[in-house]
Amino acid sequence: MAAFLVGPLELGLLWGVMVLGVYLTFRILDFPDLTVDGSFTLGAAVAAHMIITGYDPWLGTLLAILCGAIAGSVTGFLHTQLKITPLLAGILSMIALYSVNLRIMGKSMISLLRMDTIFTNIVDLGVSKQLSVLILGLAAVIVVIFLLYLFLETELGLALRATGDNEQMIRSLGVNTNTMKVIGLSLSNALIAFSGAMIAQKQGFADVGMGIGMIIVGLASVIIGEVLIGNNTLLKCLTAVVIGSIVYRLVIAVVLQLGLAPTDLKLFTAVLVALALSSPVLKSLIAGSTGVARGKGEKNAGC
């Protein structure tokens, strides 16, 4: 049982950094950013290319984070300066990043087998490979949550949060909401690229199609975390989405054990997100039908 839980926990932590990036745009900034699918692969592509060309994997990971931030700023520029709608701006960046990622990788897949990675450095200290993933994943999540919490509690962070809550109001107070959007998108995609870089090094390869459907995975994790943990405070929200990521990976592992084909995972995720997003409507319908049935029963009893 313990061995079964290790895999989802490892992936949940590594993907948790990506989910935090999705949460930043989806909840904090109220910006439906579809750059995610491209910037996740961008992080993996940059890190993998740097590693196979002989550079230090930590340097490759840092460069991946920087490239992710640049990708997010491009989406922000398209929206704020060229007045392209958020959805279309994200789609344009995502499409452009597909070609950029192929250019960086030089081919559709880069293998990292027998190459030193950030996890290899931890293994060299005498830690098992499986434990090294858990250590780095947990450390990355804790550091990102801590830094995000500190940032979002600063004056700049509060302005970013206010931009997502009420853009017109915060603009009337003299805040440049366009700058806030660019900062939020850059930070979000930097985290997403960071996750992509770690995932590529953990699984031993980077693939040009590995980012497809990342936005759905991120949304599923955010919603699951909010339902299970709640969103009363900022720190609770940040922690909840990471827990949601772990629970999501655990659910995936369970349904695969039950016989679901791996090719159906995207469909399963889409259905899960649709149910989660429509849960308020479903609850009201169930409550309404229950109320009607109870009313009829009371009426019949009165007769």
From TrEMBL:
<keyword id="KW-0472">Membrane</keyword>
<protein>
    <submittedName>
        <fullName>Putative ABC transport system permease protein</fullName>
    </submittedName>
</protein>
<feature type="transmembrane region" description="Helical">
    <location>
        <begin position="182"/>
        <end position="200"/>
    </location>
</feature>
<keyword id="KW-1003">Cell membrane</keyword>
<feature type="transmembrane region" description="Helical">
    <location>
        <begin position="58"/>
        <end position="78"/>
    </location>
</feature>
<feature type="transmembrane region" description="Helical">
    <location>
        <begin position="12"/>
        <end position="29"/>
    </location>
</feature>
<feature type="transmembrane region" description="Helical">
    <location>
        <begin position="85"/>
        <end position="105"/>
    </location>
</feature>
<dbReference type="InterPro" id="IPR001851">
    <property type="entry name" value="ABC_transp_permease"/>
</dbReference>
<dbReference type="Pfam" id="PF02653">
    <property type="entry name" value="BPD_transp_2"/>
</dbReference>
<feature type="transmembrane region" description="Helical">
    <location>
        <begin position="237"/>
        <end position="261"/>
    </location>
</feature>
<feature type="transmembrane region" description="Helical">
    <location>
        <begin position="131"/>
        <end position="152"/>
    </location>
</feature>
<keyword id="KW-0812">Transmembrane</keyword>
<keyword id="KW-1133">Transmembrane helix</keyword>
<feature type="transmembrane region" description="Helical">
    <location>
        <begin position="212"/>
        <end position="230"/>
    </location>
</feature>
<feature type="transmembrane region" description="Helical">
    <location>
        <begin position="267"/>
        <end position="286"/>
    </location>
</feature>
<dbReference type="GO" id="GO:0022857">
    <property type="term" value="F:transmembrane transporter activity"/>
</dbReference>
<dbReference type="GO" id="GO:0005886">
    <property type="term" value="C:plasma membrane"/>
</dbReference>
